Amino acid sequence: MNKLKLRLQLEQFFLEDIGDRDVTSESIFGEEMGEIVFIAKDNGIFCGEDVIRTGFPILDDKVEIDLKVSDGDRIEIGQTFATVKGNVSSLLQGERVVLNLVQRMSGIATQTNEAVSILNSEKTKITDTRKTTPGLRMLEKYAVQCGGGVNHRFGLYDAVMIKDNHISFAGSITKAVEKARSQLGHMVKVEVETETKEQVMEAVEAKADVIMFDNRKPEEIKTWIGLVPDEIKTEASGGINFDNLAGYSDTGVDVISLGFLTHTVKALDISVKVQIG
To answer: Where in the sequence numbering do the catalytic residues fall?
Structure first.
């Protein structure tokens, strides 16, 4: 994760929340020192180590952080996994932003871990999509990694994905791939979305780097995947959820992309409490 970008994002998040000043804390506290603890209220996968370590020092450069877990570790109900000591006002100003991010990232990591466990495949990997929260893509995609998944493209800029509308406007898969190839350097991969056996064969002939089976049932994929040479990566996407994910475990695809890992996620329940004594 880009820590420079993370710091800039956290500064903006704090500015959004604090505004000109924290009226409550400033009117009650001065230079008092205090301590807060992070406590898991649910079982799951922790993610957000850099958010905690980077966030609080922005507001108090003398803060002391004792983090007892690392990203990807499992945490359990009742577990105190982090302690932060510092200026009381700074702790109170930072805890909500930090907590919100840690809860969301841990929720994504936990959901990804569950998907990996359900799929239970040595060959096929779970990957995310671009269906992320605007402004939080870096953090959410990092959380997928912590849960045992891998990342798809990060945006429109780092890979070509030729979808049905691109194909319709271009006239065919072949024309779309040829046009893209003519404009690209050798480092940029080209993926083609397919919905029929004929499209798979055309994408193979066009020498796509990755072929996606879009909204296809496992039985269809098992039939079509034999048409794809080993040097071309394969992906299954669309209509796949926790209920039917296990059925794709023996299709032979290289990756299964799941939008719900980031766009439909329950934050892991975590609380921040004042440590007394």
So the answer is: 96, 131, 163, 193, 214
The whole-angstrom separation of Cα 58 and Cα 193 is 44
Which residues, including other chains, have CB under 8 Å from residue 196's CB and lie 6 or more apart?
A: none
Backbone angles phi, psi at 194, to 5 degrees: -125, 150
Indicate whether 182 pLDDT > 90: yes
| pTM of this prediction exceeds 0.90 | yes
Question: Tens of pLDDT along 204-237?
Answer: 999 999 999 999 999 999 999 999 999 999 999 9
Ordered domains of the chain (ranges, CATH): 3-115+265-274 (3.90.1170.20), 120-263 (3.20.20.70)
CA pseudo-torsion sign 135, 139, 142, 146: negative
Contacts of 275 (CB under 8 A, 6+ apart): 34, 35, 36, 37, 83
Residue 259 CA to residue 261 CA, distance in Å, equals: 5
Can you tell me the distance from the alpha carbon of 125 to that of 148, in angstroms, rounded to the nearest whole number?
A: 9
DSSP string, the chain: --HHHHHHHHHHHHHHHHTT--HHHHHH-SS-EEEEEEEESS-EE---HHHHHHHHHHH-TT-EEEE---TT-EE-TT-EEEEEEEEHHHHHHHHHHHHHHHHHHHHHHHHHHHHHHHH--SS-EEE--S---TT-HHHHHHHHHHTT-B---SSTTSSEEE-HHHHHHHSSHHHHHHHHHHH--TT--EEEEE-SHHHHHHHHHTT-SEEEEET--HHHHHHHGGGS-TTSEEEEESS--TTTGGGGTTS--SEEE-THHHHS-PPP-EEEEE---
pLDDT tens track for 136-146: 999 999 999 99
